[in-house]
Amino acid sequence: MSEDVKTFLDRLAERNAAREPEPTWIAARRQAGAARFEAMGFPHRRVEAWKYTDVRAIARGDFSLARDAEFSPASAAALTLPIEAHRLTFVDGVFAPALSRLDELPGGVALMPLSAALEENHEAVGGPLGRLTGVEFSSFAALNTAFMEEGAVLRLAPGTVVEKPIVLQFLSRAGEQAVMSHPRILIQMAGRSEATVIEHHVGEEGAANFTNLVEEIILERGAILNHYKLQEASLQDLHVASLHMEQARDSRYTSFNLNLGGGLVRNDLVAELNGEGAEANLYGLFYGQGRQHVDNHTLVNHNAPRTYSKENYKGILDDRAHGVFNGKVMVKRDSQQIEGYQSNANLLLSDRAEIDTKPELEIYADDVKCSHGSTTGQLDEEAVFALRTRGIDEQTARGLLTLAFAGEVMDQVALDAVAERVELAVAGKLPERFNLAGLVEAAVALNEE
């Protein structure tokens, strides 16, 4: 056993010794996760799926587990999205009831921390928990299972439509001791239910913590989920996330994977389209600066005929930032009459920025419509000059053109509070006298001339 692995297992042993008695099945899964993590160890760059991502900053880190959820209400308010919503808040992985808002949940909606769900009805949670993301998926998924104790559970009854967004907020504190958290999210939506979920990862400046997230989403027939993940942690934070989603017939899942922060970020997203008429729309935008490293791996499995997927990921990289995109669309045998489209475009704002991109199609059926492609380039200097001749300073011109590049993704974002956070990060604060929409439109037109 390597010293890196032993350090994490020692932390687990310390936590288990202090843990209250728990159901046998939870202890068994925790033990299975620990055993698998010990056997696999941390991934290294000789592993194909991790060849561009070095996780030594995690493996060699000295992380403790947070014991409390103390966080200044004023500091939390400054980081919270200004949106009317049902809210579940965690501080370094610990549930923070004082910062949550669960008093106005409509009928047919169950939203609670994982700890409460396990205490109230652990058998109901135990069935789906871990069914999509098993310990075999990755060493990080195994590590999450070993430490699994807190997170969010959302269950919707048949036909339930939630009008307000549901925010799952994860706050990261800056402290003398770096901490780690292993949140687990479980979303189950029954037939014809509909909701918008905003997963928001944000923290104090200088926070240097490690978040290892596992998320499982189950959509039954006709369910509709709009899922926003806004990740804007500090540039010292480490963030690894594994998301598995399963769709039944006629369900629709729309993902907005928006990564603005984090020093080292890895997202794995797997979509299983298991019923006819199931539709998955995956939109992604990652913005890197400094020495940020952002890695997105996606896999869409068309397991049934007449299923549909559309994927559009865009990367914007400045300074010495490094981006990775690996997207795969798999069409299984006899999955006829499917449509699968994938696109990855990247904008390099610096000669030192780097992108590694690999779009893939694997098709075992003959009656399909599929396409994939990738492009990488820099800002058009002629377009920058054209905007400057209209009285716009260079910084604003470059910001507008960068926003225009992100437009295909941002045009799909229906929440102003989320869009404003992204626009501010990508383009900076633009002068108020400008009609932003009009100038972006003009910049796009200039790019096309």
TrEMBL record:
SUF system FeS cluster assembly SufBD N-terminal domain boundaries: 18-166
Annotated SUPFAM superfamilies: Stabilizer of iron transporter SufD
Pfam families: SUFBD_core, SufBD_N
Positions of the SUF system FeS cluster assembly SufBD core domain: 176-405
Stored InterPro entries: Fe-S_cluster_assembly_SufBD, SUF_FeS_clus_asmbl_SufBD_core, SUF_FeS_clus_asmbl_SufBD_sf, SUF_FeS_clus_asmbl_SufD, SufBD_N
Family stated for the protein in its record: Belongs to the iron-sulfur cluster assembly SufBD family.
Stated name of the protein: Fe-S cluster assembly protein SufD
Organism: Halomonas saccharevitans
